[in-house]
Amino acid sequence: MGLGSLDAAAVAAGKALALFVVAAVALRLSQRRTLAGLAPFDWVVAAAVGAIIGRTATARDTAWTTGAAALLALLAAHGIVARLRFAGPLRRLIDPPLRVLVRDGHIDHRALRRCGLTVEDLEAALRCHGHADVRTVRLAIFETPGGISVLSG
What we know:
- By secondary structure, this protein is α+β, with helices and mostly antiparallel strands.
- It is built from six helices and four strands, in the order ααααββααββ.
- β1 and β2 form a beta hairpin.
């Protein structure tokens, strides 16, 4: 390993640390939902933040300021989308609606299909909530962030 490689490694490490600080500060200043209860647009931002940090840190032709600008623009766009969730007509575009999967022990197979779930997926989720039999479930709801809430019957 030559000195050039050590220099490149030091630059990559420095850029990664600088981008980590920018991302940590920006995420700290953003809404708490950025890290909890991830909706689809949250996942996109999380993946993109990781990609920007990784690419910028290791690319010799990309300055950390370029990566920081991309991070800040992405997080600003995320903040705008998060606020648009409160605008009536746009909410359905951003957040999928709640879906009732089980009502009074009966599975709604159409709702399962709309959520991209199989009966086996539902049964596994019910077992995680302590229900071995769907007939013991009063209500199972597929929530906006993708989890399943269960109320006993």
